[in-house]
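Why does this matter for the project? Reviewers at the last site visit asked to see concrete outputs rather than summary tables. In response, this paragraph embeds two records directly. Each consists of the residue sequence and, immediately after it, the corresponding structure tokens. Nothing has been edited or filtered.
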Amino acid sequence: MHRASTMKQRKLGREKTMTFARLVEAALENAGPSAMAEIGPKIAVIGCGGGGCNSINRMRALGLTGVETFAINTDKYHLSSVSADKKLLIGEHITKGFGTGGDPFVGEKCARDSYDEISKMLRNFDLIFLTAGMGGGSGTGIAPIVAELSKKSGALTVALVTTPFSYERGRMPIAQQGIERLNQSTHCTVVLDNNKLLRLAPKLPIDKAFGVMDHLIADTVKGLSETLFETSMINIDFSDFHNVMSTGGIGTMLLSESEDVPELISESLSNPFLDIDISEAKGALIHITGGHNMSLKNAYTVFQGIIDKLPSARNIKFGAKVIDDDASGVMKVMGIVTGVKPDILGAQAESGAYICRVKSVAFT
């Protein structure tokens, strides 16, 4: 009798546990974006200077959700045209709101003058993306200070920046030095070369050509954010993302889509926005999405084809997601490779930082 009673109690206990688990599962399934944002990591995207703020506008247009957007600039007129959750005009008593005139020293001075305000903006985030165009005054001067404060706050700090066109000879040394300084305060810095637009979109109107870069940055941030928030068949969680980004150094993006597996692998490895040698990359985060007909074999083949070209990478994380209502047969790869050596900078990556072969540009 006693044994039967004990077994009954155990059965009731298991049922209660299962019922509670089902309730939690149902709550998560029915949670909207705001609820998921409370459960997942807190993410912010900060546009620094004119180029970075343009990227923020593009992200909002793409419908980026689950993250907070901030815009920081020294140009009050440009800042007024930006759509962001919060906007901060810095150094108004220094520049009168007219920008830095291309002087990164002035941009840095304005950022340091607003040190406390920026620091307050960055509190309580787990992941902070920075976007900026390097080579000018505001983005180049502001971004390293924001990255420094972001890292001090304890947030994982990832920068996505662009470099000038080759004809902008005076801006390239400034960009090189700015990226070096920025990279010292980020966990990973992703660099995109504007010169590649001349090959990829030579006939596009200039505003649409620059929009290609803004769209690429915005799409990457959106894709990575959704990867962390949404449940996948093979999940990439925040700890996975943190481990790969903490590998350090300069990073590059993996972006491609195709119905053909070999083509998907080839396009993923041939980044059209930066001249790189990925064979000595230190880490990689790779996420693939496809329709309900995407097979495990195809996903495995894509993963294997990419890592075969990364013999030095020891920290690799994979993710895969099936989109049930997609019957197109197209698969998409999105990710970041860290610790690469881009030729565009004329620099060598050592210990996660760059030693530039150009005359140093002093900001302080």
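We now turn to the second protein, recorded in exactly the same manner.
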Amino acid sequence: MSNSNAKSYASRALAVLLLLLPASPHGARATTPAPAQGEPLPEAGVAQLVERVRRGALGADEFAKAIAVGHALVAGRRFGEAAELFDALVLVRPSDRAALYGAALATFNAGRAAEAVPLARRAADAALAEGRGRGRERDAADALVLLAVVLAVRGDGDGALEASARAAALAPDNFDARLTHGRALYGAGDDLAAARAFRAAAALRPGDPRPLFFLASALERAGDDAGALAAYRELAAAQPRASEGHLGSGALLVKRGGAEAEEGVRALARAVEIDPDGYEARVTLGRALVARGRAAEAVEHLRRAAALAPGNPEPHYQLSLAYRRLGRREEAAAESALVKRIHESRRSGAPPPRPKP
């Protein structure tokens, strides 16, 4: 599978990872009733709570309940309100690990990654200090996972690798720690170590598509096509209505060629059926059909791929081949000219040319 598709899936998996972090990872869940399911927290009530926090008017139990309210806001994707509440809680108790963790999580999800970095570091430090004293290694691992994710998004791969490694060492049975460490290793180019981390994550949560996808990607990049194919097939079986497993196995089977290529074409067609607007599946299927003398079938997929990524020359190049094999010389020449103009625009920095409708 191409790096572009892997990055696309990775970004979606990152969002899922953050939303699946424990809703209240620092103990507030036990003493705080959750809001009624489906009952939104009123904005005015949140604002009043923030004011009470700022006045220092909360006792210990109320502080714990405010932490739970903040996590409920995060779960409801009300990140700005959650960040405001957690910021107030941190001002009152600057070393409270639960408040720091919530502030980092909400601030990051609010799109303020730079501000989340120091909060995540403080949350990790506080959790590590308390974890050593009370045997709460999992809480410390959760904080380190969050720190690793924030650092990775900020482009600090080394910092993400260090934080995730500490998290995995502290809590080897923590799924998020193993998955995040694998992703950090993958980003660092250590595919074999990444594969081991992804296997560990997959064993902790069988059927979850994320470690299977990244395992397959790591093995494929490491040159282990057989292992990658097995992982892609397992992903397709676990998530038959998601396109990634079908796309990955299809692309790999087509690349291997021989008798397996036709199975690969069918898998790619299934990926397109599931996600008609998936560029990678469209262009890969179109390319495979052209290579197998099925140019007429390829045109539809390549035209759609060109519409999805107008600045990419690949679908236009494949269209030029398809049209030439179909005897449609003028259209083939037009696509070849478009490929040339796209390459020229890339060199000059100009916007890519648009094909004529």
